[in-house]
Amino acid sequence: MSSYSIGAARNEFSALVHEAEGTPVEITRNGEPVAVLVSIAQFRRLMGQGNFGDLLKRFRREHLADLDDDLFPVEVRDRSPGPPVKLG
Fold it and tell me: Is 58 within 8 Å of 35 (Cβ atoms)?
């Protein structure tokens, strides 16, 4: 991944957009990374991933026939009350 300062990115924005269509481009301020320019295809792929819970549900839906309930239980949260807590 190539890296450009904000000033250089401003001066070469068109070229950076073209470069970002192939590979992400890092933008820095005072030498520290602050942003990444990515293609719209990669952005859409990243945004479509969702959070872990949604991904797990989708995975289970898509692979239900392949999952062994003993190895991958449907209910993964332990709902037992847990040990008693002494307050004070």
Answer: no
pLDDT classification of 75: cutoffs 50, 70, 90: low
Is residue 6 within 8 Å of residue 28, measured between CB atoms?
Answer: yes
pLDDT in tens, 16-55: 999 999 999 999 999 999 999 999 988 888 887 767 877 7
Q: Which helix (H) or strand (E) holds 26?
A: strand 25-29
* Number of separate domains in the chain: 1
Q: What CATH number is given to the structural domain containing 13?
A: 3.40.1620.10
Enclosing domain of residue 14: 2-37
